[in-house]
TrEMBL record:
This is Glutathione S-transferase N-terminal domain-containing protein. Residues 217-229 have a biased composition (Basic and acidic residues). Residues 90-212 form the GST C-terminal domain. Coiled coil: none annotated. Residues 208-229 are annotated as: Disordered. Residues 1-87 form the GST N-terminal domain. Belongs to the GST superfamily. Gene3D superfamilies: 1.20.1050.10, Glutaredoxin. InterPro entries: Glutathione-S-Trfase_C-like, Glutathione-S-Trfase_C_sf, Glutathione_S-Trfase, Glutathione_S-Trfase_N, GST_C, Thioredoxin-like_sf.
Amino acid sequence: MIDLYYWPTPNGHKVTLLLEELGLPYQIKPVNIGAGDQFKPEFLAISPNNKMPALVDHQPADGGAPQSVFESGAILLYLAEKTGRFLPSDARGRVAVLEWLFWQMAGLGPMSGQMGHFNVYAPEQIPYAIERYNNEVRRLHGVMDKRLADSAFLGGDDYSIADMASYPWIGAYDKLPVDFAAFPHLKRWHEAIAARPATQRAYALRQQVNPDAGKPLSEEERKHLFGQR
């Protein structure tokens, strides 16, 4: 059994996408980041950066004590290596998937998050920040579109953890729709992943775990989410 410390955010969705594809038994341990659960000592013991997702694998491959893993990219890599799925075994294929996995971790995720913050959550509109992150995310969408013009998926011909890492950050904010007309290959890729049964199961968890998803944040939630505590 795997304990998944989760809240339905783009980074949380990455891991449920993979777990649903793998069919591994797991149970969700909700981490209500609006209520400050990420700062509880028991969570910090497995995720010292007070960020979710994190997991505890009670049946690690080495047969030893339960293995905890934090950071979404590390979790995807851990599970792919454990199961031998969604990460190529040949050296060149593995490199391609890891390139795009780390591209997401260093670029698409953080830049999309900042775009969302300054457009949707910031208490005041800062035109420079809005323009800066809107332009950078659009550039990154262009990078993806160019790659996907020549490849079915980011890592190559097959669906992989690189795709699962990036998918939740495409259209993560309802108020900031992706310009799919400008990026048709990105649109094709996004639709293909959305149609997968495992994707639909993963995203069904959103309302189950957080029925208030999509509602305006309270002041208390803002304090917990945006570093005021």
